[in-house]
Design goal:
The structure is a homodimer of 336-residue chains.
Chain A (H helix, E strand, L loop, with lengths): L14 H14 L3 H4 L5 E5 L2 E10 L5 E2 L2 E2 H15 L2 E13 L4 H18 L2 E10 L7 E11 L15 E4 L5 H10 L16 H10 L5 E4 L4 H13 L2 E5 L7 H10 L12 E5 L4 H9 L8 E7 L5 E5 L5 E4 L12
Parallel strand pairs in A: 5-6, 10-13
Antiparallel strand pairs in A: 1-2, 2-7, 3-4, 5-7, 8-11, 8-12, 9-11, 10-12, 13-14
Chain lengths: 336, 336
C-alpha cells in the first residue's frame, strides 16, 4: 500500500520502511546491488573486493547513556561494513547543523567520533558541513559513509543462508533502545541501562577466522532483533525459528519495556549482531565470540528451516509458538 | 575567533566555514587526509588507488530551474570525486525526510537521482532512509558519498600548484546561485537562468587525457569562484592573479545579482571547475575542454605567482587591482 505522504513509520525499520524502499527507491534506482538489500554494497575495483555503506544519524537525544550521536555514527557504519564481511578502513562524515547549536556540544560530539574511530581502527578522512537556519533541523544530524576491504572468500549474504543454519546473537538485546528511551521519557527513577553502542569489526574478524562457512551476519539495529530476523526470513524465503527463553534480555531492560509498553524484541541495538552458520561450525563460532569482549554473552537463539514461506516463528515461554511479523507502526522514532 | 554557537555563516563556504573546520574538526579528528582539505580523500587499498568524497545537500527550494536536490546530490559528489582525479564508480545515498513530505515529490527526486547517475555512468549501490517528525527537518536532506578509482599518475592537489601555472574555468559563473535565488526570492519578473548543475567526470577525463601535468582541479561550488580561488591561494601559499574582464558571467546572471545585491564571483556553481596547469600545457587543456559540451566556453582567467603570501588579486575592469578575501558573511544559505 502506498501513501501520499511520508509517515514517521516509513523510517521505523518495519513494514513501511521496507515498502518505501521496495516501491519507491528500488524501481527508480534499479541496480543489482541495491536489490540485495544488504547493509552495504560489495563490488570489485581493480581486482580488489571492496564494500561501502552509509547511514544518517538523527538520534534524539544527541547524548544518551553510553554514547552520543558522534560515537553512534562511527559504530553504526563500522558495523554495517563489518556485516558485509568487510574490514572497515576509512569513513566520511557529513554534518547538518542547526543554526545556534552550541559549539561545546559539537566539539564533544566530534571528539567522541575521533575516539570511536581510533578505537575501531578506522580513520575519518573526508567530511562536509552544512548549517541550516534555526528551526530547519533539530540540532544536529550526521551522516557517515565508509569503505572496507572484503577478504573473506565466501559470500556473506542473506542469499547464502541455508536450511539447518543456526542463529547466534552476541549478547543481551534492547540496551540501546532502552537507554535512549529512558533518557527521552520520564521514567520516574534512575536506571543504569547504557547503550550497547560498540564497534563490532574486531569481533567479526574473530568470527570469520573461526569459520570459513559463515553465511550471513546482520546487526540488529533499528527494528531490533525481531524486525531484522523477520526481514531476513522473508528475504531468504526460509523459516527461522527462535526460542523466546533463549533470547537474552537484561532485567533492567525488561523493566523499562514494561513501564513504556515496549517489546525488547523490537528495541534497537547498536552493538548486537546475528550470525548464521552451519550447525557444524556453530561451536567454533560461539567459542570465538565468547572469547571477545563484545561477544562474551553470545548464545544460540534459533535455527533456519525450510518452512512453507519466509517467516519468523517464536516458541514462547508459555509453551506455544507464534509468528513474529515485521512491526507495522513506528515503535521508537529517531533511535539512531 | 571562536563562537559559542554555530552561525549560519559557518556553513557558507567562507572564512567562518574554514575556521570551523580548522579549529574544531581538524584538531579532534586529526589525520593527514583531512588536513589536506581537498574535495575528497585519496588512498591505496590492496594496491589500487581510490578516492572517496561526501556531501550533504540541504538546498532550498528542493526544485529549481535546471534541477532538484536529487540531481544536484549526484552531480555534486560525482564532481568532488572527479576533482581528486578519480573516476567515480559507485555512490551511496542517505535520506532524511520530514514526516508529511509528499511521496510524489520524493519519487520525482529519486527519479532525478537515477537519471543523473545513469548520465554520469555511476551506480547508486547502497542507501539509508530516516524519517523525522514534522518540524524536525525542512522537507528533505540528502547525503551522497562516493568512491572512485584514481588512475592519473601525478598528484592532483593544491600542494601540486606551482608559480607560473595558469588558471582555467570551464564556462560562465554564477548560474546555479542565480537560478536558486531567482526561485527563492520574488524578482518581479521571469528569468531564464537555469542551474549549471552537471556531472563533470567525462570533461575531467578529457582534461586528464590532454595533459599529464594537471596540478589541481576544484569545482567552484559554495562560495563561488572567488571563495574557492582565495582558499586555494591561502592553502598553496601562492598568489593567484585573475582579470575581472576575463571572467565569464551571463548577462541574465549579472542582472539578478544587481537586483539581489549579490556578487557573481561568490555565487555557487554546480557545473563549473577550475584547472591549474603549467603554461605549456594550457593550450592542450583548453582545446580538450572546448571540445566537450561542459567546457565549450572554457577560458583562461588567471595565473599563479610567487607573491608575498597566499592571496587572490583581481585586476578590475576599471583598471585597478584589489585583493579578493574569503567572504566573511553568509551570502546565500542553503544553496547546495
Amino acid at each position: 500500500m502506498k501513501f501520499d505522504r511520508i509517515l514517521l513509520e516509513h523510517g521505523g525499520g518495519g513494514l513501511l520502511s521496507n515498502n518505501l524502499i521496495a516501491e519507491t527507491f528500488l524501481p527508480l534506482l534499479q541496480n543489482t546491488y541495491l536489490e540485495r538489500l544488504e547493509d552495504g554494497a560489495v563490488f570489485d575495483v581493480g581486482g580488489v573486493r571492496l564494500c561501502i555503506s552509509t547511514d544518517s544519524y538523527v538520534v534524539n537525544p544527541l547524548f544518551f547513556p553510553g554514547g552520543n550521536i558522534g560515537s553512534l555514527a562511527v559504530h553504526g557504519t563500522v558495523n554495517d561494513i563489518s556485516m558485509c564481511g568487510g574490514k572497515p578502513l576509512y569513513l566520511s562524515c557529513g554534518f547538518i547543523i542547526e543554526e545556534g547549536f552550541p559549539t561545546a556540544d559539537l566539539e564533544r560530539i566530534i571528539r567522541s567520533m575521533g575516539e570511536a574511530a581510533a578505537n575501531a581502527g578506522v580513520q575519518i578522512v573526508t567530511g562536509d558541513t552544512k548549517v541550516v537556519a534555526k528551526g530547519a533541523a533539530d540540532g544536529l544530524f550526521i551522516n557517515t559513509s565508509g569503505i572496507g576491504v572484503v577478504e573473506y572468500p565466501s559470500v556473506i549474504s542473506v542469499r547464502s543462508i541455508r536450511p539447518g543454519d543456526l542463529v547466534i546473537v552476541n549478547g543481551p538485546i534492547g540496551d540501546h533502545g532502552a537507554a535512549v528511551m529512558s533518557k527521552r521519557q520520564e521514567l520516574g527513577y534512575e536506571t543504569d541501562v547504557v547503550s550497547d553502542s560498540a564497534p563490532l569489526n574486531s569481533l567479526v574478524a574473530d568470527i570469520l577466522k573461526a569459520s570459513p562457512n559463515v553465511h550471513c551476519m546482520r546487526d540488529a539495529t533499528r527494528g531490533g532483533l525481531g524486525a531484522i530476523l523477520a526481514e531476513i526470513a522473508g528475504q531468504a524465503d526460509l523459516e527461522i525459528t527462535i526460542a523466546e527463553k533463549d533470547i537474552p534480555v537484561r532485567e533492567e531492560v525488561k523493566g523499562i519495556c514494561e513501564i513504556l509498553g515496549l517489546d525488547p524484541l523490537f528495541l534497537a541495538n547498536e552493538g548486537k549482531m546475528i550470525v548464521f552458520c552451519p550447525e557444524a561450525d556453530a561451536p567454533a563460532v560461539l567459542a570465538a565470540m565468547r572469547a571477545h569482549p563484545y561477544g562474551r554473552d553470545a548464545v544460540l537463539i534459533g535455527r533456519v528451516e525450510k518452512g512453507i514461506r519466509g517467516r519468523l516463528i517464536m516458541a514462547t515461554i508459555i509453551g506455544g509458538s507464534r509468528e513474529v511479523d515485521l512491526p507495522v507502526g513506528e515503535l521508537v522514532p529517531r533511535i539512531c
